[in-house]
Input
Amino acid sequence: MKPLIGKSEWFSIPQFGIDWFRAKIDTGKRDSLLHATEIEFFEREGDGWVSFKGIDDLECEAPVVLTKEVTNSEGDLTKSYFIEVTVESLNDEGHHLLVQLSSRVSKRYLLVLGRRALGDFLVDSSRSQLLGKI
Output
């Protein structure tokens, strides 16, 4: 049975050493977003990778799974990088997500789970923290 989650839940990202933080569940957004600054593309053994500062300014590296060209709010065409992460929820389950790296400095939530990531869950958007509180 799929776990029931609310409009925000607690997650961690152990592969980057990121402890518990609240994420927004957004059924209106297609892709998931993960906060990242200082994003730098590089190659490692012929594969595309990114280095970035993640949540709590932790230094992170990950292979690039997908690159898209997107138009930013100023109308400029920029590259957007997608990586795979495994997030853990308070019900001790790991969930594999494809996330777009994006600066969310001025945003309340540093991780947004979009529709593509919500296949493992049932969502009750009228409630929050249904998996537990920290």
Q: What stands out?
A: The mean pLDDT is 92. The two ends are 24 Å apart (CA to CA). The chain has one domain: 4-123. The first strand starts at residue 4 and ends at 5.
